[in-house]
Amino acid sequence: MQSKEVELGGIPSSLYMVRIAVFTFGFLLNLLMFIILIRFRKPTDNILTTGIVPTMIDGLICMVNVASFAESMVKQMSGTQAYIICHFISSYAIIWALIAARVFINMLVTLFFFIQFLYPFMRIEQRRKPIRTVLIVGIPLSMATGIIPHLLTNRYAGDTNQCTTHSGAYFYAPMRLVTVFRLGVLVSFLYNFLLPVIGSIYLYHHVLRILRLRDKNRDAYKEVHLCSIMDNWFMLLFAGIAELEKFMVRYPNSHNIQYDPFRSAILMLILSLYSVVYPCLSIVFRRRYQRPILDCLVYMGMNPTDSWLAKRLNRSEASESRKQHTKTNEHPHRRPTGIYSHKNQH
User: Fold this and answer.
1) Per the record, where are the segments of Basic and acidic residues compositional bias (predicted)?
2) What are the pLDDT digits (tens) for 82-136?
């Protein structure tokens, strides 16, 4: 029995134009933010919370989407070029690998905040070497598991210059290979999406509860709350349907839904929009992105004190300073303790 294959193509050129326009803007924005965050970050900042790694991954996602127009020219190509485009661009394997890495980074940031606020004695912000080790090992692992559902689904026929794919319902192979592939698709869905997102939501719930109880600084709470919304709920919003479609289409011998190139292109467009929306909202709402931008403008000889960004940041910092001053004045006559109190008595 032959596998029922679907020829890739038939996507309107207008959709390619939209992708090129949107993701060219996203790539340039992420590239600019990547340079600014590297150049103007504080030496004491941890690499996880600076936004450097997520910005780099978002830029790569936008770049791959810009290059997606090449899949419409597979029939005019031949050899290695057509093979690479068919198996890595048309199958969205690279985008799914980068999305898996992005979800992994979001989970690490959540875990960082959880340890930092609930177990401050561990001084997680100072443990840079273990964090870098986790990044070096975890990112390639996530990307590898993200590619698994797309390893055996696309096929390039050199004699006809056709790139075809098939749904999991028509995946015919030896039973052992089918079992391994089923496990790989399931692990990819759980490890790269479901468990990290649910785990992050759960951990952020505890972090925000601790901040509400312990910290009178509302700005710190707002910053972490925004991080929670953008890293978890936005990811769930943009990636949820695409992840479900990938699982239902690619899972071997599951007669759920059939692969449709146009539907998948729309879902991948929505999924990848996360990498454009994220930096835009971060610039508008998050101090961790606003401060390096203002430092960059000052470095360039500009005077951004009257800009809306400076006013927003200064208003936030003034509020924080006022709250800290109020907190200090709550106990103005507090008696010193410890070794210094004994010295003052003498």
Assistant:
1) 319-331
2) 888 888 888 889 999 999 999 999 999 999 999 888 888 888 877 888 888 999 9
Q: In terms of CATH architecture, what is 5-285?
A: Up-down Bundle (1.20)
Check the CA dihedral 169-175-176-177 and report its sign: negative
Question: How far is residue 68 from each of residues 24, 61, 62, 294, measured CA to CA in Å?
Answer: 12, 11, 10, 34
Residue whose C-alpha is closest to residue 139's, from 60, 33, 224: 60
Phi first, then psi: what are they for 11, rounded to 5°?
A: -80, 130
Helix (H, G, I), strand (E, B) or coil at 6: strand
How far is it, in rounded angstroms, from Cα 70 to Cα 89? 8
Give residue limits of the domains in the chain.
5-285, 287-327
CB atoms < 10 A from the CB of 70, how many?
Answer: 16
- Between residues 125 and 229, the one the model is more confident about: 229
Nearest to 272 by CA among 83, 73, 67, 84: 67
User: Which tokens sit at 15?
Assistant: 């959709």
